[in-house]
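lol forgot to send this yesterday, sorry. C-alpha cells for the thing we talked abt
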C-alpha cells in the first residue's frame, strides 16, 4: 500500500489508534491502586513520583515496542516476538500463564472492584454488616461476570459492544468529574494543606518502591495494545509512534491529575486505608451526586478473546476455538475464562496485581531480549522498520529486570508462585507441544472434547492453521454432521483433529 492510499475499512488510522491506546490503558487500576501505592510510599510526593516515573518508563517501553512493532509485522505482541527469534518454549509458557492466570486475574480484580464500589456507594443508604461485606462484594462481582458472559455468549456483536460503549462513556465521565472537582477545591477553595510538606514520611525502601511500581504499572498495562494487531494499522511507521506515545502521555497526565485530586481532599493515610478511594472522595466533595460516582467507576470489566485467539492458532486445545457463527461468540473460551476468573477471584487483590505484573514484566523482559538478539544476529526485519537508539532498550530492560529481582526480597512467596506457573508452562511445552508425534490418547481426548463442545454449545471449531493430515486423522462429513450444528458443516474445511496437547 502506498503512502498516499487511503486505509482499508479494516485498518485503524491515527485518531482511532490513539483512542484505542487510551481506552485500553484506563480501567479499574486508577480506582484500585492509589491505596496500595500510598501504603508503600507513605507520602504524597513519593506517590506522585512513582506515578510519573511509571508513565516515563511506559513511554520508554513504548519507544522500544515501536521498533518491535514495525520490525516484526506479525500480530501477537510478546508471543510473536519470542516466536520470531525461535524462543517458542518461552512464548508458550507465558501464553499459558496469561490464559490461566494473568487475564482471568485482571478480570477478577475488576469484578471485585465493581463489588467494592457498589457496596461503598450504597453504604449510606443500605449499610451492610462488616462480616457480610466481603461476601456481598464478591457476589456482586460474580453477578457482573455472569452478566457479561451472557451478553458475550448470545450476541457479542449486538449487545456486548454497545454495553462496552456505555462503560467507556461512564468511565470518562467519572474521570472528568473527579479531576475537575479536585482542582476546583485546590484552586478556588484553596485546599492546599495536604501539600505543605509532600515528602514528609516517605518510605525509601527499594522493595517497597518496587511494589509501588507494580501497582502503578498494572494501572498502565495495556499500552502495548497496538502491537497485538500491527497489520491492522494504517501507515504503522507514522501512526504507531504518535498514537502510542501520545496515548501514554495523555494517560500519565490524567493519572497524575487524579491522584492530585484525591490528595486535595484525603490524607495519604486515608487513601492507603481505602478500598474505594473514588467513593470516599465523592462523599467528601459532591454531596448527593456522590451516589453516581460508584456506579460510573464500577463498570470497568470487559472480556478479552485471548483464549480463543490462542486456540485458533493451535496453541491451546481445539475445543477452546469453538465459535457460534450466529452470534460470533467464542462460547467455549468464554466459559473457560469464566471458570478461571471465579477460581482466581478468591485470591487477595493485591496478590493478584503482583502476580499479573510479575508475568507482564517477564514477558517484556523476553521481548526486549529478543530485540537485542535481532540486532546482534542481524536478523531480517520488515522494510521501513523504525530503529530507535539502543539506550532506550537498555534502560527499559534494566528497569524491568530490577522490578523482577527486587520483589524476591519483599514479596518472595508471590514471586515464586509466578515463577512456578511459568515453569509449569515450560514443562507442558516440552512434554506435550514440542514432540512431533502426539500420543493417540491425547488426539482422541482432543477430538472427543471438541465434539462434545460443539454439541453442547452449538458451535464449530474455528482454526486458523489447517494441518495436512492423513485420511484416518481427518474428520469425515458424517462425523461433522453428528455434531448437531449447521455451523460445523459450513466450517468443516477448517477442522483438523491434530493438535499437540
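and heres what i got for the seq, position by position
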Amino acid at each position: 500500500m502506498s503512502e498516499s492510499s487511503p486505509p482499508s475499512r479494516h485498518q485503524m488510522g491515527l485518531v482511532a489508534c490513539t483512542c484505542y491506546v487510551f481506552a485500553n490503558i484506563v480501567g479499574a487500576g486508577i480506582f484500585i491502586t492509589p491505596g496500595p501505592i500510598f501504603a508503600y510510599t507513605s507520602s504524597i510526593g513519593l506517590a506522585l513520583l512513582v506515578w510519573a516515573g511509571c508513565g516515563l518508563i511506559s513511554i520508554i517501553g513504548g519507544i522500544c515496542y515501536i521498533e518491535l512493532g514495525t520490525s516484526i509485522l506479525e500480530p501477537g505482541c510478546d508471543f510473536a516476538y519470542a516466536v520470531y527469534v525461535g524462543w517458542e518454549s518461552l512464548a508458550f509458557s507465558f501464553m499459558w500463564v496469561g490464559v490461566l492466570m494473568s487475564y482471568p486475574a485482571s478480570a477478577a480484580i475488576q469484578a471485585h472492584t465493581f463489588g467494592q464500589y457498589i457496596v461503598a456507594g450504597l453504604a449510606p443508604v443500605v449499610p451492610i454488616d462488616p462480616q457480610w461485606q466481603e461476601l456481598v462484594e464478591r457476589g456482586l462481582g460474580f453477578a457482573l461476570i455472569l452478566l457479561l458472559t451472557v451478553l458475550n455468549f448470545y450476541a457479542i456483536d449486538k449487545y456486548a459492544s454497545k454495553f462496552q460503549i456505555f462503560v467507556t462513556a461512564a468511565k470518562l465521565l467519572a474521570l472528568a468529574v473527579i479531576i475537575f472537582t479536585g482542582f476546583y477545591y485546590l484552586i478556588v477553595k484553596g485546599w492546599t494543606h495536604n501539600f505543605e510538606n509532600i515528602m514528609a514520611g516517605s518510605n525509601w525502601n527499594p522493595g517497597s518502591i518496587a511494589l509501588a511500581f507494580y501497582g502503578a504499572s498494572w494501572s498502565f498495562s495495556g499500552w502495548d495494545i497496538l502491537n497485538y494487531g500491527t497489520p491492522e494499522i494504517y501507515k504503522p511507521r507514522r501512526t504507531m509512534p504518535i498514537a502510542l506515545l501520545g496515548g501514554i502521555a495523555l494517560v500519565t497526565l490524567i493519572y497524575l491529575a487524579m491522584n492530585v485530586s484525591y490528595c486535595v481532599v484525603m490524607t495519604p493515610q486515608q487513601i492507603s486505608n481505602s478500598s474505594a478511594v473514588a467513593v470516599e472522595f465523592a462523599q467528601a466533595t459532591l454531596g448527593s451526586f456522590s451516589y453516581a460516582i460508584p456506579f460510573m467507576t464500577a463498570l470497568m470489566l470487559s472480556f478479552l478473546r485471548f483464549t480463543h485467539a490462542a486456540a485458533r492458532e493451535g496453541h491451546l486445545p481445539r475445543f477452546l476455538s469453538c465459535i457460534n457463527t450466529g452470534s460470533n461468540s467464542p462460547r467455549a473460551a468464554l466459559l473457560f475464562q469464566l471458570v478461571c476468573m471465579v477460581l482466581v477471584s478468591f485470591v487477595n487483590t493485591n496478590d493478584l496485581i503482583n502476580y499479573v505484573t510479575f508475568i507482564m514484566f517477564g514477558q517484556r523482559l523476553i521481548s526486549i531480549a529478543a530485540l537485542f538478539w535481532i540486532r546482534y544476529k542481524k536478523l531480517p526485519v520488515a522494510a521501513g522498520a523504525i530503529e530507535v537508539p539502543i539506550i532506550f532498550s537498555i534502560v527499559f530492560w534494566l528497569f524491568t529486570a530490577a522490578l523482577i529481582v527486587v520483589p524476591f526480597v519483599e514479596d518472595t512467596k508471590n514471586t515464586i508462585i509466578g515463577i512456578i506457573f511459568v515453569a509449569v508452562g515450560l514443562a507442558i511445552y516440552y512434554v506435550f507441544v514440542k514432540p512431533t508425534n502426539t500420543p493417540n490418547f491425547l488426539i482422541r481426548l482432543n477430538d472427543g472434547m471438541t465434539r462434545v463442545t460443539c454439541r453442547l454449545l452449538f458451535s464449530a471449531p474455528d482454526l486458523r492453521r489447517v494441518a495436512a493430515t492423513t485420511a484416518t486423522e481427518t474428520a469425515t462429513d458424517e462425523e461433522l454432521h453428528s455434531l448437531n450444528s449447521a455451523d460445523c458443516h459450513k466450517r468443516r474445511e477448517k477442522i483438523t483433529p491434530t493438535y499437540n496437547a
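Residues 440-494 form one domain. anyway ping me if u want another try
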